[in-house]
Design brief:
single chain, about 300 residues, Rossmann fold, 5-stranded parallel sheet, about 40% helix, binds phosphoric acid mono(formamide)ester, binds norvaline
């Protein structure tokens, strides 16, 4: 039987995302009450990370442990991937030993190749194209404060990158409006834009994007893999710092979101990320709860 993978947010329907978020909130409650819930006893999750991570790695390892299972972490240096063993062979071998595999890699096509040769669920922990696990946590963070995200307005101000693409997919799946402001040359992928038509607008104007938004969201100007462009990016993104002026254009109760890691004074001013409208620590925490709900769904352990 073909396993159920989570390579993009599009692998879930809007209703499934809503149910998953509801479940994530329940699992969060169980944990806060100190209740044990271990449906994944005896299961093993492998994590292959070709890029750095704090939140994604720790939330998957901790989540798997809380669900009663175990996890193992493989950097390319520890496996034969760095020595030229084909990704297809690695997928075939690992999926005969472990029960699910989480991958953070460079090219999205590598993730797709891996998944095509895996007999167990594969989860995207970030590629150059998207970061769907982040969006599960971000949507949970909004819903637990305000209820359904349908009909709301979100401003993405910054790089049209992997996280932006997942916000675009979320807008289409969950029926909200996403106004993107990105500097010239940093626009999101045109195929993703086409697929999200009617839910996404694109400009180069942060003020316009922020107008009347329920959420203002950004990401680092220099993502992993683009370090050599750092100086150029800092010049190109001038005027895109989310400061109190930009936040004042959004709704008075707008939330500020950021997937983290954040760079104060660049994409966001310290007074915003450390201020009362910021929900970034809840977003980070919700990575744990929403990914536990995702594991439950992919392992099909919940009736
Ligand atoms: N937001 C996020 O994915 O963080 P890490 O890179 O620390 O995993
Ligand atoms: N866009 C960033 C996200 C990090 C979690 C990157 O790809 O580095």
């Amino acid at each position: 039987m073909t396993p159920r993978h989570f390579l993009s947010l599009r692998d879930l329907s809007g209703d499934e995302i809503r149910r998953l978020v509801k479940r994530a909130c329940e699992l969060k409650e169980y944990l806060k009450r100190g209740e044990r819930y271990e449906p994944l006893r005896g299961k093993t999750l492998a994590l292959i990370f070709e890029k750095s991570s704090t939140r994604t790695r720790v939330s998957f390892e901790t989540g798997m442990n809380q669900l009663g299972g175990g996890s193992l972490f493989l950097s390319p240096r520890d496996s034969h991937l760095d020595r030229g063993e084909p990704i297809e062979d690695t997928a075939r071998v690992l999926s005969r030993m472990v029960d699910a595999i989480v991958i953070r890699t460079h090219a999205h096509t590598e993730l797709e190749t891996f998944a095509a040769h895996s007999n167990v669920p594969v989860i995207n922990a970030l590629t150059d194209k998207c970061h769907p696990c982040q969006l599960l946590a971000d949507v949970q963070t909004y819903i637990e404060r305000r209820g359904d995200i349908k009909g709301s307005t979100v401003a993405w101000i910054g790089d049209g990158n992997n996280v932006c693409h997942s916000w675009m997919n979320a807008a289409a799946l969950l029926d909200f409006q996403l106004h993107i402001a990105a500097p010239a040359g940093y626009e999101p992928d045109s195929a993703v834009l086409d697929a999200c038509r009617g839910h996404v607008t694109l400009s180069q104007d942060p003020n316009r994007a922020a107008h009347h938004a329920d959420i203002v969201v950004t990401d680092a100007w220099t993502g992993m893999g683009y370090e050599e462009e750092k100086a150029k990016r800092e010049r190109d993104f001038a005027g895109f710092t989310i400061d109190e002026n930009i936040m004042s254009l959004a709704k008075p109760d707008a939330m500020f979101m950021h997937c983290l890691p954040a760079y104060r004074g660049q994409e966001v001013a310290a007074e915003v990320i450390d201020g009362p409208q910021s929900v970034v620590w809840d977003e980070a925490e919700n990575r744990l709860h929403s990914q536990k709900a995702l594991l439950e769904l992919l392992f099909a352990v919940r009736s």
